[in-house]
Amino acid sequence: MGPDRILIIRHAEQHDEPGIDGDGRFDRHSLIVRGWQRAGALIPFFRSADAPVPTPGAIFTSAVAPGSESRRSQQTVAPLHAVLRDGGSVAYDERFTKPETGALMSEVMTRHGTVLVAWEHSRIPACVAALPNAPPVPSE
Q1: CA of 106: how far to CAs of 13, 66, 126, 127, in Å?
Q2: Fold of the domain spanning 5-130
Q3: pTM of the shown model
Q4: Nearest to 84, CA basis, from 29, 134, 47
Q5: Of 34, 41, 74, 100, which has the highest C-beta tally within 10 A?
Q6: C-beta of residue 61 within 8 angstroms of C-beta of residue 42
Q7: Contact 53/44 with Cβ under 8 angstroms?
């Protein structure tokens, strides 16, 4: 049957300045401070009493792989995942690399409830295009 709702978000902030990893070390593959702030803001967005969308039961984010070392998508959902994991209510999947949008969306379609996908912005159109009965998707 598939999920009730699929939410696809881009990773949070990156910039010309180096990012910072979860331990506070400079890392060019990580979010900048503003990105970590936005990542933290996903918690009340999904968990507040008047949240505009249901809490995800599954979170997908891209794998770190050779030639694709960015951890920004994983870091974007890390605070939300930590809260949901502590409550025992979320599946987490980081098996798919950025180009594997077809395989990713096939797996997404096996889930139920609300699914959150955090992906690199340039690949989001390919994620949407891989859905069954996808509408026309702009290239940017």
Answers
A1: 27, 23, 12, 10
A2: Rossmann fold (3.40.50)
A3: 0.91
A4: 47
A5: 74
A6: no
A7: no
Q: Which two tokens stand for residue 111?
A: 């889930």
CA distance 63 to 48: 29
* Amino acid at position 97, single letter: T
Residue located via tokens 């959150």: 116
pLDDT of residue 86: 86
DSSP string, the chain: ---SEEEEEE-----SS-EE-TTS-EETTS--HHHHHHHHHHHHHHHSTT-SSPPPSEEEEPPPBTTB---HHHHHHHHHHHHHHHTT--EEE--S-TT-HHHHHHHHTT--SEEEEEE-GGGHHHHHHTSTTPPP----
* pLDDT recorded at residue 14: 66
Listed by start position, the domains of the chain span 5-130
Q: Please state whether beta strands 19-20 and 26-27 pair in parallel, antiparallel, or not at all (unpaired).
A: antiparallel
